[in-house]
Write a structure and sequence with these properties.
The chain is an all-alpha fold. Helix content is 82%, strand content 0%. The chain contains 3 helices and no strands. The chain has helices spanning 2-15, 21-47, 56-85. Helix 1 (2-15) packs parallel to helix 3 (56-85). The longest helix has 30 residues, at 56-85. The chain is elongated, with a radius of gyration of 16 Å.
């Protein structure tokens, strides 16, 4: 998970060039929906884990998938306001 978090942050900071916070909200929702649906279809339905799939680490993964784009977009938004105000 730490490596995935670092890669996700790198993508958000270096590859996503949007200036709009709304774009980061869309990315957060889309990535989270993709993660939940694909986990369910490709892991839960196919492998049918006996002890269950949804444990704390999975919920942390979903939370990070939602929060990282939002936090990055918010950070870029704040830095834009600071840059434009000349502080």
């Amino acid at each position: 998970m730490p490596i995935g978090t670092i890669i996700t942050l790198w993508v958000l900071l270096k590859k996503i060039r949007s200036e709009s916070f709304q774009d980061y909200v869309f990315i957060a929702i889309a990535w989270t929906l993709i993660a939940v649906v694909f986990d369910y279809v490709f892991l839960v339905m196919i492998f049918k884990p006996v002890d269950g799939y949804y444990k704390l680490d999975v919920y942390v993964y979903y939370a990070l998938t939602l929060i990282l784009p939002l936090a990055t977009g918010w950070s870029k938004r704040i830095s834009q306001k600071i840059d434009s105000s000349g502080i």
